[in-house]
Structure formats: C-alpha cells, structure tokens
Fold this sequence. Notes:
Blueprint: H1 2-6, H2 25-32, E1 40-41, H3 42-56, H4 66-72, H5 75-78, H6 81-88, H7 98-113, E2 120-121, H8 123-128
Helix pairs in contact: 3-7
Bound molecules: calcium ion (3 copies).
Amino acid sequence: MRWLVLVALAGLGGAAAGVAQAPDRAGLVRYLDVDRDGRVSLNEYLSFQQPRLAEFDENQNGRLSRAEFKASLSEQAKANADRSFRAFDQNSSNGLEEREFLGYHAYVFKNFIDANRDDHLTADELAALNE
Length: 131
Ligand SMILES: [Ca+2]
Ligand SMILES: [Ca+2]
Ligand SMILES: [Ca+2]
C-alpha cells in the first residue's frame, strides 16, 4: 500500500509527482472518505495523518524530531523538511507535537492539495497534483 503513504505527500514546494504512481486515485479518495460523501474533508485527511505521528515517533516521546518528521514525508516534501519543521514547531520544543504535526498537514491540505479551497479533496484535485 505504498500509494497510501504517498498521499502523505505534499511538499511545501507543491510538487507531488509521487502521486503519479497511484494506481487508482478514485480508490484512494474512497479509502479516505469515511463519511462516504465522495470527497475527502480536511478532517478525514487529518484523521488519516494523525496516527502517522505515532508510527514515525521512533523513540515514542510523543513528538516528532526533525529526523522523524523528515522520515514521515514523501520524497518531494523532504526537500523542505527543515524549513517546515522550524515553521511548525511553534512552541520551540525541537519536536512536532500532535497539534503542530496536524497543523503542518492542514497547511499542506489547504494550500497544496485542495485546489479550489472548499476544504475537500476530490479525485480530480488529486489527479491535478500530477500536472
Ligand atoms: Ca467525506
Ligand atoms: Ca513543538
Ligand atoms: Ca477541494
């Protein structure tokens, strides 16, 4: 299920070519679309991202270090990992707690994934990321 990780995509530079490898974008939207309204809301997207913090929190201290955060990102997003980490570590704890981690992903969703800014991701918007 490599493509599920790819939706975690989202470079702050906007490039998300990794999604081009997704075999079935409609299937991906269906997977994330918990309330079955045909679109992925910001909350549905963040619900997908939330458990990924624990998944990449190697030393289980409840926050992602710079290296752990970087490991959680797609290849495209890794290029901006240091800048993103600094920007979203708002309490200067040198780690991203859940609120900060979700803040990052909400920012990415709103600015790079949800093209028409209606707080929902559609298969069309996902396809557009390839262009
Ligand atoms: Ca939905
Ligand atoms: Ca922090
Ligand atoms: Ca949208």
